[in-house]
Design goal:
This protein has 215 residues and is mainly alpha-helical. Helices cover 79% and strands 0% of the residues.
Length: 215
């Protein structure tokens, strides 16, 4: 499938969100990487499950800590790339289904728990990790309930979308690995970033949902 057609279909499936700027660049990369999977006839559900499996693999180096935190950053990055490839494969093969969307959403939430859990294993306080993870889940739950309530568009691309959460996890895991003596402080800062960014993003989505569904 040509890239232009892929971007057009992606926009149509995401409530008219324009595939420009950073989003367009990310989607262009996903289109390129998904090409070999499409040629190998790998299904989107298989890519989704592979992404979750890779995400779970990040727990082991996180439990080791120290320099192993560098491996956490690498594994989470790979999982994040795979998270975008399942959607690209689905669009490019015409296999976008409601079942696949549900599977993807469930696996995404489980992977989110793994990512923030890695920060806990690296030394972040449990209460802060739970709070950051809970706000991220609320962000996604609010948007899902708004869609069920009749909001047909994404509404707003908030500051705390899933790519942001992945980048935050990778960035602070890198810090913990590069400076193992301060690993716990890096993990704490990462969990705090999850919470602060999550609260801002949740507020953004809540305001748009209130405006769109009022009346």
């Amino acid at each position: 499938m040509p890239r232009a057609e892929y971007l057009e279909r992606w926009t149509a499936l995401h409530g008219g969100v324009p595939a420009t700027g950073l989003v367009g660049g990310w989607l262009a990369m996903a289109h390129t990487l998904a090409g070999p999977l499409v040629r190998l006839r790998v299904g989107p559900d298989g890519v989704t499950l592979l992404g979750l499996g890779v995400a779970l693999a990040a727990l082991w180096p996180a439990s080791v800590g120290g320099r192993a935190a560098l491996a956490v950053a690498v594994v989470v990055t790979v999982a994040g790339v795979l998270d975008n490839l399942d959607g690209a494969v689905a669009v490019m093969t015409g296999r976008v289904t409601r079942r696949g969307a549900v599977l993807d959403a469930v696996c995404d939430r489980l992977a989110d728990a793994v990512f923030v859990g890695c920060l806990w294993l690296l030394g972040a306080p449990g209460w802060l990790v739970v709070a950051g993870g809970a706000v991220a889940w609320l962000h996604e739950y609010l948007r899902a309930r708004a869609a069920a309530g009749g909001m047909s568009e994404v509404g707003v691309v908030s500051i705390s979308e899933r790519p942001t959460r992945i980048v935050v996890t990778v960035m602070f895991a890198l810090g913990a690995g590069i400076y193992p003596g301060a690993g716990e402080r890096w993990a704490l800062a990462g969990a705090a970033a999850w919470l602060v960014v999550g609260l801002v993003g949740f507020t953004q989505v809540a305001l748009v949902v209130r405006r769109r569904l009022t009346g």
